[in-house]
Amino acid sequence: MKRRIVLPVLGALGFALVVALVLVHIADAPSDVSETPHADIHPDAAMIERGSYLAAAGDCAGCHSVAGQPPYSGGRKFDLPFGTIYGSNITPDVRYGIGSWTDAEFIAAMYRGIAKDRHHLYPAFPYTSYTKMPISDVLAIKAYLFSLKPVSVPAPHNKVIFPFNQTWGIAYWNLLFNSKRRFRPDPSHTEQVNRGAYLVEGPGHCSLCHTPLNIAFVPRAGKEMAGTIVEGMRAYNISPDPKWGIGGWSDADLVNYLKHGFANNHGAAGGTMAEVVENSSAFMTDNDLLAIGAYLRQLPAQPGTVDQREPSSNSVRLAPASFELDAGAKIFVGACIGCHGLHGPYTARGSNLLGHPSVSDPTAQNAIYIMLHGVDLKTPNGRIYMPSFASSYSDEEIAAVLTYSGDTFGTGALRVTAEMVRTVRH
Predict the structure, then answer these.
(1) Which of 297, 312, 344 is the endpoint of a domain?
(2) Domain boundary residue among 280, 297, 314?
């Protein structure tokens, strides 16, 4: 009797194991033989230069660098719901970097999220986007990285709770969510739109920050570029909706924002977006930035939570005759007006608050974050700087000055409490 029960159970388990192994093989397998070259390419100067541009377009430095350390040497911290992971060292150091990686191994990481030692990389590394890049672009990036000076520094070990520390399980996630397909131009679109689509969907991986993610950490269908929260800050709606997105932005506004870090009457980049500008879009050509804008403009418009329209002169509050009765106004005059101005000339680069989405965001997420952490954005075109006021003002004072700023420069939707500030501070 027991034999009759045990044998079918063992058979079922064996069959399940075979199916599981087959599925892993399918998930990990290259999509075609070109992904496994037998010999490495010997790059020339032109290939290395193109790789430098593509590495910037992919914002590689943003995830693989930390302040005070050599670029690409790893250590960038990412706090996730199931633990903490760190950006790896991708300099050509043989011991701690990727100096011993072959072209085929680099392609496997970029397309399928598989490292040299065959462990699966967490999809916080956007290989589901990089898989859309042609092999020539992927190997150009490798050529550039291998032209850098090796940095012999190990990245910290990931600290992830069970079962998410079992990276073999990512193979099944890949089976469901990694297309392993290269980008193909849409013949119904212009060359410019297709170029923008490639940059946004491929190296730029914009949707991973600007589209809400579902429970599987995959961009939600039907919510493309609708905006979400990333590392404590709001990544704004960049769909073409004229109220909630960038539908009211001109081409010049988009190029200025991505190239210089700000656009008049639309605000300045801060937080992770400032890093994107500093490490990535500031180095891209105007034509590519225009292509990105052209692609975004043809996406479906998405509703949102932050009115990004420029307020009219009739919708903002004029400065009060006396600042004695308004605590927020007193702080603004004492600490802010020198750079931001008050319905007149502003003196600091990128400091125009009129139309800045953060002063119209009812959640105050970005406004509070910037007050507490400041901004220090360096681009080849200049610097945007604002100090941190975390130690200068109490939660109540920060709430007061932000509410005043929202009334003065925004739509009046910004109502900040001390508790809101306290939540972001801690």
Answers:
(1) 297
(2) 297
CA 405 to chain centre: 27
CATH number where 286 lies: 1.10.760
- Structure tokens of 337? 């007006």
What's the full length of the chain, in residues? 426
Residue 358 structural domain: 327-425
Model pLDDT, residue 316: 46
Distance of alpha carbon 126 from alpha carbon 28, whole angstroms: 16
Task: Say whether pTM exceeds 0.85.
Answer: yes
* Residue 320, preceding peptide bond in cis (omega within 30° of 0): no
Give the rounded distance of the alpha carbon of 148 from its chain centre: 24
SS (H, E, C) 13-63: HHHHHHHHHHHHHHHHCCCCHHHCCCCCCCCCHHHHHHHHHHHHHCCHHHH
Do 63 and 166 belong to one domain? yes
pLDDT tens per residue across span 82-99: 899 999 999 999 999 999
Listed ranges 190-194, 247-251, 314-318, 355-359; the one with the highest mean pLDDT: 190-194
Cα–Cα distance, 94 to 13 (Å, whole number) = 42
Please indicate, yes or no, if residue 310 is contained in any of the structural domains.
Answer: no
Confidence of residue 324 (pLDDT cuts 50, 70, 90): very low
